[in-house]
């Protein structure tokens, strides 16, 4: 039960920390602008200073909360509001520079970045100043692991444990215990996150991608975001670059706790992980199937069919959203498989979105368990995951989440249709925004954008992005009677 009432000052204090961190990242965009002698440098500097002063002022006004620990109830508020606050402050560079002068479009782009969705309203990305392209990439990188996890990682310096914040941000389906203390777990995840980013930058540089493009694409890849610096996404880059990005999308879609466990030398534990096995199995089977369809029906060369297929399969499954081909022009069977991948999602504890592989795995185990019980009702059958028995309460929670996810998706599709969109576009926009994928179907496919959608639809989709990013409950629980009564 929630034992504490809502403390507005404490919530504002944590928001001030979030805003301050965001302003520091914004200063990096100022540096890029100055380095390239752009005319918008001063405007970006003012944006950064404004965000920093706002965060500092709010922090000073709530300094009496610096050593307070948020309750679980307050944590849900902090996590949910933080993402909208990130998106709101993130619009400032777009608005003041005139690169995205319309607020709703700027807000959509900003929320899409921080939630690592990757859906965009921009038609000519390459016309943007490098500093704005860098800021778009930064929003991905900040949101990838979660600004809240970053805050938790530095909580020891503020004498705050932050345990409830961590559990509100990180998927609770992860069963591997990385550390006995939450702050060390957050710190370990960030080290892996930073390490993958740096290694990918090096490999992209080897492929003769420019330093600027390498950094931006590494930010977007490891965060499974999908914002590219090019109009044609990754299609114009060499096969080597495409394979490298495929590899790092795949790695970023794996539970980050497994990366940490692997670094500790526990290889056997990693390879025995059932979620990882199913994750790789899905990529292998669907990738091979689509490769065959492209090779035999569209008569592509085998290597290109394999490369386009695996790239797109990994991109959609991990909810990254990069593209090397227009999958809407593929055979219908391949397009349907892509739609299926949108509903599956990446691994728990990764930067990817969607329902998550582990929830589908537990659901399948429950279905098999039900059949066994029907055949042999007197035999005790236990559902196990990684060799351990799964509690019935957990299974019920997984099934409830899956049902709720698809129910929200269905209702969202109907709402999008009420905005005058066709069924394919409505489903595609809802699925891709809720799953944090990027491109969808219909008029929001991989070679299109979201600019043409009505303003109301854009606002609705930004809400859907945050709901999906925070795995539904953290946001929706605030609107329940039970939340306010306890």
From TrEMBL:
It is found in: Cell inner membrane. InterPro entries: Cat_transpt, TrkH. Belongs to the TrkH potassium transport family. Its main location: membrane. The keyword Transmembrane applies. It is a multi-pass membrane protein. The keyword Zinc does not apply. The lineage of its organism: Bacteria, Pseudomonadati, Bacteroidota, Bacteroidia, Marinilabiliales. Keywords: Cell inner membrane, Cell membrane, Ion transport, Membrane, Metal-binding, Potassium, Potassium transport, Transmembrane, Transmembrane helix, Transport. One of its GO terms (molecular function) is potassium:chloride symporter activity. The chain crosses the membrane at residues 12-32, 44-62, 74-96, 141-167, 188-206, 240-264, 276-296, 336-358, 394-417, 459-479. GO terms for cellular component: plasma membrane. K(+) binds at residues 116-117, 225, 320. This is TrkH family potassium uptake protein.
